[in-house]
Design brief:
The complex is a heterodimer of chains A (475) and B (229).
Chain A (H helix, E strand, L loop, with lengths): L7 H10 L1 H7 L3 H14 L3 H17 L1 H14 L3 E5 L2 H14 L4 E4 L3 H5 L2 H7 L3 E4 L2 H8 L16 H11 L12 H18 L2 E4 L3 E3 L4 E6 L3 H8 L2 E7 L3 E2 L2 H15 L7 E5 L13 E7 L22 H4 L2 H6 L10 H12 L1 H4 L11 H5 L6 H14 L5 H14 L2 H19 L4 E2 L6 H4 L4 E2 L6 H9 L5
Parallel strand pairs in A: 1-10, 2-3, 2-4, 4-7, 5-8, 7-10
Antiparallel strand pairs in A: 5-6, 6-9, 11-12
Helix pairs in contact in A: 4-13, 16-19
Chain B lengths: L3 H19 L7 H11 L13 H14 L3 E5 L5 H11 L5 E4 L3 H5 L9 E4 L8 E5 L2 E3 L4 E5 L6 H5 L3 E7 L3 E2 L2 H12 L7 E5 L4 E2 L7 E2 L6 E7 L1
Parallel strand pairs in B: 1-12, 2-3, 2-4, 4-7, 5-8, 7-12
Antiparallel strand pairs in B: 5-6, 6-9, 10-11
Classes of the chains: A alpha/beta (475), B alpha/beta (229).
Chain lengths: 475, 229
Amino acid sequence: MDVTAHAFKSNVKAALKDAQLQRALAGLPTGLVAQRAAAKARLPEFEALRDVGRDIKNHTLAHLDLYLEAWERNAIAAGAKVHWAPTAADARDIISGICRDANARLVTKGKSMVSEEIGLNAHLEKSGLEVVETDLGEYLVQIRHETPSHIIAPAIHLTEGQIEADFRRHHTHLPKDRPLDEPVKIVSEARDILREKFIKADVGITGANFLVAETGSSIIVTNEGNGDLTQSLARVHVVITSIDKVVPTLEDVSTLLRLLARSATGQDFSVYTTFSTGPRRAADPDGPAEYHVVVLDNGRSALLGTSFQEVLRCIRCGACMNHCPVYGAVGGHAYGWVYPGPIGAVLNPALIGLGEAGDLPNASTFCGRCESVCPMKIPLPGLMREWRMREFATGGGGRLARMAIGVWSYFARRPRLYHAVARLGIAGLGALGRTRGSFRSLPLSGGWTRHRDLAAPQGRTFQQLWAESRQGVPR
Amino acid sequence: MSTPGNEAGRRAKVLGAVRSGLGKQRGAGAREAVEVRLQGQLRHLIPGRSRQDSEHLKALFAEQLRGGSATVLDAASEDDVPRVIAAYLRGQNQPLAVRCGDDAWLRSLDWSKEPALVVSNGRADPADAVGLTHAVAGIAETGTLMLASGPENPVTVTFLPETSIVVLRKSDLVGPYEAAFDRVRERYGRGMMPRTLNLVSGPSRTADVGGRLVTGAHGPRRFCVVVVG
């Protein structure tokens, strides 16, 4: 997938001016956010389960090689073909090799962010395959030649009107005057079109929400059932996943599943949770003849043993972006690579480098909502701060910002000078603004005063007021 | 093209990178800790709602399913199942033609009581309108049916037809997921699974068009659970 994370700032400007996008994003607070709150309220143990979930993932990551080996052993025993991919290019080669060996022409796909990460569709299409996304949201995005703007709601940036227009433009074999003015009609049309693809597909590719070491299984969680039709009707099922998805036992995955749907869509449980273990068995009348699992590293192992190890706990629920004021304002595409929102601001620099994605960790108000809703309790603001420190230490951040920080740090390390200058500045501003009580414009404050007035200080600094109150001096 | 040689090389590269990343933090006894976890069946916190008596569990099971747009019906006994199914299909204006696998218990039911109801066996085709399956377990916690693929209940019967009917014996209703997994372990052996184990909680649905919920995405549009006994 093309990376535009380096253009984050201009992406943001465009997103803020995009009226369709703003209309689409306006539904977030009453949609996914409210639904999660309701699901949480229905389960008194929810907060306690977050601690358990975090501990399960921490234990697993601390023994990651051993759990991956145990999972592999059990998967192979059930007939799986396991492929390890150190890099995105390795994963692409492995999967196109499997498709070639299967003489495949048509590939159906369930939703997979890892497949976005490795740019799988473009690669397969280049080798002459027809690739069809079957998750409705992914399909909507695919026919627009776009990428998902959210990890669980890929088409959240689209309005119903845009979708209707896309269907009319793309499905030209259907009557021009057919009614498509309601979601149910759009869903029905997509169902009919994709049903045919499921049946004709040679290879079905899905992601995995989890791998279970105890049983050698891969798990997909969906509401549409598209992942199940993808993997059950094609002759070859390929799972593309990553090393951080493994968990030890069925008990462990039970706890994580209790957290996943509630955090993601606010459902108590998704409609379909499917455990897949090996290919079709001897007596089975259906199911794929081959079952391959491609396990991607692509920079994740380099996070182990660092402060960023915690980000590998992520179960990709999307709660952090749903609750993020920055995501809510600019949407997912502005982030410029696969993972948007707070998780992307932490993960993308790790996977594609700080030079490319260095602006993302700066796009945070540090309000802390992401961490407070993360089912895995990943300290996202703290990790963003860590990236900011690294960016500064390696000379990034832009000349103006570095100069401003330099000036500030000069004063901050000399408290007496700092207080003296602050006293002067506040007193001066207080005197200047006394008559009106606020400023309409002020040098260096255009970013603020362009949109609202800046209240004038009262004449004394917080430090002065604090010192006085401690001495019992009346104001 | 992937050869066995570079497959092994890639494997060593990934696992080696994981090991070198973990190197510093891992103490002795790691291997044993992993074995204990994999064999020990360590139970975590189980929500209180799934630890109730069977009548309350049944009520919770039905309430959760109905909340997800499913239909829940009771059959007083095994003898009653064909009648309940036929009545449901008539009420939904659906054909009285049902596809099901070779499940011995489903086949043992006295279908002759509903002569109009045609039951055919084997995997489902796209033309089948109604699929009938027998659940391994019902999970009250979230109103979820556990289905195991195989000749008894082919996975195509669960996903292809527009109407999915699942029969559950009341004695197979459990509280939490963990209790249902115990049944899987009893049936297949520890560490073993059917090819697919499907946890299903209602008709297929999507909210990808403008965030509005629509049932009947790619899987069944109707989901009906018949609880027997």
